[in-house]
Amino acid sequence: MKVLKKITGIQKDYISTFLRDQISDLEIVLSQIESSENFEDEYVEESLKRVKRRFYQFRFFYN
Q1: What is the DSSP letter of 37?
Q2: pLDDT at 49
Q3: Which pTM does this prediction carry?
Q4: DSSP secondary structure, 10-31, as one string
């Protein structure tokens, strides 16, 4: 079982900022999806890939 480490204030700020950025990007994507009749919009696809890649990188940064 993995023991959770305490995070510093700087780490907490970084994590919060990272998550806010991803939420912002996803809200834009959601807006685009809701306003578009064509769900397979290139912007939506690329944005989702970018968010996925950022989470993947973030996961390895904090492991």
Answers
A1: S
A2: 93
A3: 0.74
A4: HHHHHHHHHHHHHHHHHHHHHH
